[in-house]
Amino acid sequence: MKYLIKLYVTGQTPRSQRAILNLKRMCEEELRSEYELVVIDVLERPQLAEDEKILATPTVVKELPLPIRRIIGDLSDSERVLLGLDLRAYPNE
C-alpha cells in the first residue's frame, strides 16, 4: 500500500524545517519506503494551498489511502500525528 502525504509549509523557517524533518522521520519509521512525501511551500504555490483550504501551516494531508486525514502543527508529538493520520502500522498477528 502506497501512501501519498502532502506537507504544506510557509517558507524555509525553523518551524517548517522541523515539521519536514519530523514527518520524514515518522514516515521512514512507520511506512519504510511505502510513501510519497510532497512538500508544498504556500508562499511559492498559494493556489494549491487555497484549493486545499489550507488555513495554517505546517499542515499535513494524507491523501492516500482514503480517508483523507489532516494534522496542523510542527508535528513534534509523533504519537498524535501517527494516530491522527492513520499511519500507525498494525503489528503482525
Strand and helix map with partners:
Elements: E1 3-9, H1 14-31, E2 35-41, H2 46-51, E3 59-64, E4 69-72, H3 78-84
Parallel strand pairs: 1-2
Antiparallel strand pairs: 1-3, 3-4
- CATH structural fold name: Glutaredoxin
Strand content: 25-35%
Distance between the termini: 18 Å
In helices, the fraction of residues equals 25-40%
* Major sheet size, sense and barrel closure: 4 strands, mixed
Number of self-contained structural domains: 1
CATH superfamily: Glutaredoxin
Task: Report the count of strand segments.
Answer: 4
Query: Rg to the nearest angstrom?
Result: 13 Å
| Strand line-up in the sheet with most strands | 2-1-3-4
Q: How many separate helices? A: 3
Mean pLDDT: 88
Shape-level CATH architecture: 3-Layer(aba) Sandwich
Low-confidence stretches: none
Order of SSEs, N→C? EHEHEEH
Briefly note the structural class of the backbone. Answer: alpha+beta
Class, according to the CATH hierarchy? Alpha Beta
